[in-house]
């Protein structure tokens, strides 16, 4: 009788039994023993939630999610003196390095193919605009709420990582550092400080991006036919944590202040994209330039998302907030499932239900039944207050607060409260049971 | 005859039975079928990292942490119309209700005994103090950093949940709502907006609190011998998500503005705690009052933590920030493990190492080698700016920024950067490989 049995999971269980008539009893007993043993090893109190896999050190993976206390001694990219976080140095072979890290940290593998770390930030000093920091605080709370509901980590940067890479260029060094600090994440999601999540349920359709490495809101025809610097918006993007992205950032940043050729890029960009606002090279036009000039290289890997508001221009959104509130309450009156109270941690289940029941195939954007996913207060410049002269500053601040409360209503429902009026932040109103079915 | 079951969630099971007799063949087949059944029920193909346990609906638990899309139809406390989030209504039988929720959501069970949700917040309107909201934003970032490193959820409240429960009373309705919205959490950790985590590695010794339901920084002798309203600080506390805490909050709030007897409680508190600042009843004195008047009821369940700075008065901390930086760099020069770069997600492993190697048995507090865990800028009132006249406002803001950068240095190390000077937020300085072993 040959008998070998390893640990469950990732492990093999092989049983070979060759018997003659004489030992049928033994065979039965033996099989039963295997059954008993396997059940015991699986349901024994000690290994209550042990994962079916082996960890680097041979012990079972704790199933309480991620093993944050385990970092094996095996040498990895962090131990390589030549690997630098700096925007000025290139990273090579990142895909293999990340892959190896995940192999050495198997508890991070489940879900790693879709894991997102959100990155945002703002300036290091107080805002010139008196209400600026208050709005930044609330915009950050809004992002933290979205990330908590969907289980994403979020990192806020309020310092320059490179003295020359400031204003709209500051995000590139931060995104690169985040990629290196978070090998467990497949996507880094940059979101400008003045972009607000106005649909707390919606989740980006990552499967749609499986062959792409950068996802940004934009339109190909406006890049290639109209040559406008607003053909896409670089204030919100998903970038895959891979070697391709490392190289994109290298090329991208070579048009920025850190590059010796910085000065020449402004005029080049303007010569092609005539409506470009600033004389100096900016990150958004730089990205459009790459797509325009090297379409064959970049277009296949950059997904221009236009089917929903990965970021939506606030002017087109805020006017509809009241109507869309009514539309969503209507869905909730239609179906008791959407009225069911629940733990915040399982909110995704109800978002998925609404998607399935009411929003299937519904595109986002103007006139859609969908709420805008992200409302971007482009041009409002809440911190400096130097908003685009075409609108009144007070309108910016007033509408930002309405958008923030609109989003907060979706969050506070699970805490038992709502804002009775989108312009009114406090106090909140208790939500009656089975709201909105029962009359308020 | 070969029964091959193929791949079942990373586990391979192969059973080969070579038998010479028909009956034995049937026996083997039967046994193998049981094996097939048993393994199949455990490693279903659908669940890659399937957990060795059964979910409410009979399916396997996904091991990619928490199953945030699963909420079974089984009726629970959320479906009870009489359960209210309001501070004015009592919750009964909460322990059973929470236990039942966890049973219906088994993916949340692993780690539930120590799961923490941090709750903080500030006023709903812009601060009077021009630098106020900037400081609040940075204090929130500091808490989000701590929670990201340790895997806690964090919720920021900037609206009153009850119009009468304002200022220092506002936290009670929020804490209660968070308890109900987060049945997956064993602890709700309230942290005032002006409290800053200055040791990003330290984790509260929860095992020490296993027989207690409320943990707050304070000293028994000062309650019972000195009757001072500063015998504990209610700005930072861990409260267990259990029925006892629900009842404590009911009793606690009955001394607050929501109570018809509110007016009488101020004088009562002052008659016992002579040094109390405000004439009106406040949450901190109210808690001390309960401990003082009903020692037998509350003292056994309230842990007064004085062995480390669960919250430390900033005046006693900020002067030592430079020295403590040096002491910690010294530890890092002493041991290469502390200099090893790593993913942020496994930072806890290095914190645990430092604890074991250098800080074992080291109490926190004045003169300790330990960094203060939490530095609380009590009396600075960063938002209103109405700081305690005994100190200069500018000192408050300057020291808050130094404390924030001191903490940020511990965070940004894993992103490759540090603040070269605690007073300087930006730009950051790249960290050389093997820092601080190599000369800067």
TrEMBL record, chains A, B:
Transmembrane segments: 21-40
Keywords: Glycoprotein, Glycosyltransferase, Golgi apparatus, Membrane, Signal-anchor, Transferase, Transmembrane, Transmembrane helix
InterPro entries: Glyco_trans_34 (IPR008630), Nucleotide-diphossugar_trans (IPR029044)
Subcellular location: Golgi apparatus membrane
Gene Ontology CC terms, in alphabetical order: endosome; Golgi membrane; trans-Golgi network
GO MF annotation terms: galactosyltransferase activity
Membrane topology: Single-pass type II membrane protein
The keyword Membrane belongs to this UniProt entry's keyword annotation: yes
One Pfam family it belongs to: Glyco_transf_34
Family affiliation: Belongs to the glycosyltransferase 34 family.
Protein name: Glycosyltransferase 7
